[in-house]
Write a structure and sequence with these properties.
This protein has about 350 residues and is of the alpha+beta class. It folds into 3 domains: about 5-150, no CATH class; about 165-245; about 260-340, no CATH class. It has 14 helices and 8 strands. It has helices at about 5-10, 15-25, 55-65, 125-130, 140-150, 165-180, 185-205, 215-245, 260-265, 265-285, 290, 300-315, 320-325, 330-340; strands at about 30-40, 40-50, 75-80, 85-95, 110, 115, 135, 140. Strand 5 (about 110) and strand 6 form a beta hairpin. Helix 6 (about 165-180) runs antiparallel to helix 7, helix 7 (about 185-205) packs antiparallel against helix 8 (about 215-245) and helix 12 packs across helix 14. The longest helix is centred in the middle third of the chain and has 33 residues, at about 215-245. The chain is elongated. The relative contact order is 0.07.
């Protein structure tokens, strides 16, 4: 779509056209603009890796006031850093601003966001260009456009107290949390899910009793709180699993145990105990050089420890006499397995 058609579509109330114009205008600001609407309320969300500068509000306000898109009476602007929620918000009423005279350039063909357009540029069009900068015939016209915009909006009162849409923010954070939870696996994944649920709860708790959404917010509080607790439990489980995987060689307690205790022990305990046994034999110089060379670090020794644990399990598998098992030592079973495997030198 050409710049002229895009501008006309924006004037006609096309949110996608407004979105396209603003994204083109702010391409150097490292932000993304999304424009939607709820009835006569125009919703603008500006997001970036870093919190967008609040000075963007002034530029957006001047552009929207001048274009005066049809069908909208109010604007709600929210800026946010991706993944960190709202940084700041603003809200104002739209007042029409008509061009009093065209600004022309006989020397230079100006462009709208880098796209060809007619030479005559009305103040109404230039109001949007105020989001960036425009030079016509070597003369910077931003100040003239700003004056024209301020004249057309004189006598009207703008909102100085931004209204925050806590209900909308809560629903959005809740939706993000639910989507993230559907694919979460790691400790970091679940930490982010918990953060989104808490963000949603915080927004719900800020909705005052006189709000039309207050009753719904109270019901959502219970629902979101339950979801947050589930996510927190998953976070703890993922964290503990990560720690167990990173410290698999710690916590072995079967060094002096009997084989009945071994059979009833956890796989993690068996693996950690087997690692300790191999490390001790290596330190004493009792492992053959080929095996000793593979048992220098925890990660190197892990597959060897797993082989030893599996060998002891296999040795004891067919023995069901608990009295006999209680009379045999795990250390003796380990030596037998390692001797048969040829890992010990005497």
């Amino acid at each position: 779509m050409s710049a002229t058609l895009t501008l006309q579509a924006a004037k006609d109330g096309d949110t996608k056209a407004l979105e396209a114009l603003m994204n083109k205008s702010f391409s150097s600001e490292n932000v993304t603009v999304r424009v939607t609407n709820s009835g006569s309320l125009l919703k603008i969300r500006v997001s970036g890796q870093q919190p967008p500068e609040q000075s963007l509000a002034t530029k957006i306000k001047k552009g929207i006031q001048t274009i005066a898109p049809k069908g909208f009476t109010d604007v709600a602007l929210q800026a946010e850093a991706i993944g960190r929620g709202a940084a700041w918000q603003d809200k104002w009423k739209i007042s029409s601003a008509e061009a009093s005279a065209p600004i022309t350039s006989p020397q230079k063909r100006p462009t709208l966001f880098g796209l060809p357009r007619p030479i005559a540029i009305s103040v109404g069009v230039a109001g949007l260009i105020c989001m960036g900068a425009l030079t016509v015939g070597g003369v910077t016209v931003i100040s003239a456009l700003n004056n024209a915009s301020s004249q057309t909006t004189s006598g009207q009162t703008e909102s100085t107290e931004p209204e925050i849409d806590h209900w909308g923010n809560a629903l959005e954070a809740g939706e993000t949390a639910a989507i993230s939870a559907s694919t979460a696996e790691s400790e970091s994944d679940w930490r982010n899910v918990v953060s989104e649920w808490r963000k949603a709860l915080n927004s719900l708790e800020r909705i005052p009793p006189e709000s039309p959404q207050y009753s719904e917010a109270q019901a959502k509080l219970a629902e979101y709180k339950a979801n947050e607790e589930i996510a927190h439990t998953r976070f703890i489980e993922a964290r503990d699993l990560k720690r167990a995987e990173e410290e698999w060689y710690k916590g072995g307690t079967l060094h002096q145990a009997n084989t009945l205790q071994w059979k009833n022990a956890s796989s993690a305990n068996k693996l950690a105990t087997s690692a300790d046994m191999l490390a001790a034999l290596g330190n004493d110089g009792q492992l053959i050089p080929e095996i000793a060379a593979k048992a220098r670090t925890p990660e190197d020794i892990k597959p060897l420890a797993q082989d030893l644990a599996n060998g002891i399990d296999a040795l004891l598998m067919e023995i069901s006499d608990e009295e006999y098992l209680a009379d045999q030592q795990v250390s003796d079973a380990a030596v037998l397995v390692l001797t048969v495997a040829g890992w010990i030198q005497f």
